[in-house]
Amino acid sequence: MRIHKPRWPVFSLLIFLCSGCGGGSSDTPTKFPTPGLLHACPALPASTAPEGSLSATIDALVANEMEAAGLPGMEISLSKGGRILYSHSYGYADLSACQPAKTNTAYQMGSVTKQFTAAAILQLQDAGKLKLDDPVNAYLPRYAFDPNLSLRMLLNQTSGLPDYVEFAAAPSWTGGAAQASILAAISHAPSLFVAGSAYTYSNSNYFILGAIIEHVSGRSYADYLAQHILLPLGLANTSYLNPTATAMPYTYTRPLLPGAQGLAPGIVPDSSYLFAAGALWTTAEDLNKWDAALLNGEVIPAALFAMAVMPPATVPVFQQAPTASPYAMGWIRNSLAGHPFVWHNGKTYAYTAFNGMFLDDGFSVSVLTNVDIQEDTPLLAFSTKLIQAVCAASPASC
Prior knowledge:
This protein is of the alpha+beta class. The chain is about 30% helix and about 15% strand. It has helices spanning about 55-70, 115-125, 150-155, 170-175, 180-190, 205-215, 220-235, 270-280, 285-295, 300-310, 380-395; strands spanning about 75-80, 85-95, 100, 105-110, 250, 265, 280, 330-335, 340-345, 350-360, 365-370. The protein has a 7-stranded antiparallel sheet with strand order 3-2-1-11-10-9-8, with helices on both faces. Strands 4-7 form a two-stranded antiparallel ribbon. Strands 5-6 form a two-stranded antiparallel sheet. Helix 1 (about 55-70) packs antiparallel against helix 11 (about 380-395). It is globular.
């Protein structure tokens, strides 16, 4: 699980979990000359949506993206204020059985998980069980963390901690790892900068937050999310462990069988490795529900959500001062099509995800696919084009 450092600090943030994966030099999908399994199944029927309709516009964009990036399957859902505008699955969930993708097919969301981890921490603050400006050592005293490192710095990605997915020991953790081993490795690694002085993306921050959730709540991370977020919100297709109805994992870069060419079956790392930084599974419609619940105050109070989507005002991007950090708490904040826009993407060894929404009117877009897309910022360019096309074709929708 490797993080590519951003080329441009506002939009080009690669937010994912994937050790040993390659990355493109731009947001144009890499075209792969060796298709491997990509054409193992017959072509599915083309869109029959009326020309000029919103459905036809979306279907055409998806078809182009799937062809350009060599995607086996894709699932998208768009909603506004919690009402689904369009939801559809494309391609195949399983190429070995030629099983088409369905809208209830789950995909691993990778670092979109961080939205859920941040919300859980804020719930615990709201319950009076922790304080964001407390030192990490107050909750995890057995580890050698900087005494000045706070929970807020973890949430805002301003800790200076290096990314555990880039450690030499990381490959040995993918099949299952003791939480204490990873925490100890993070706590002993030299910091990149003084805690709180700059922003740089590190999965270590949210791995630690998961351990704090467990310590404070007395529950496992998975159980806390289930009891306090997933079940209350009716997110029936979102889970910590690999669910039954999942899209099969595929990759061009890290095949399950070394040496496989083109699109090949991929690897699903153990959830203990991805943990609170990237282990969750979901559907696109569940992510739309999640967005609406956040905006409606069903997860955390409105004041806490406003804080969660507001980057720190005075923190620069590491080695790019005076450029300010765009990272809030599990969300990156920008503007798009004249709206305040927050988003996060994710990539594991064999899945890529994107979830974003407009803060002013609740327009939400979620995209999932069962391959590790090779772009600097996976699915951001496609999701941006999708949003712009929807806004142009149906202004009332966004």
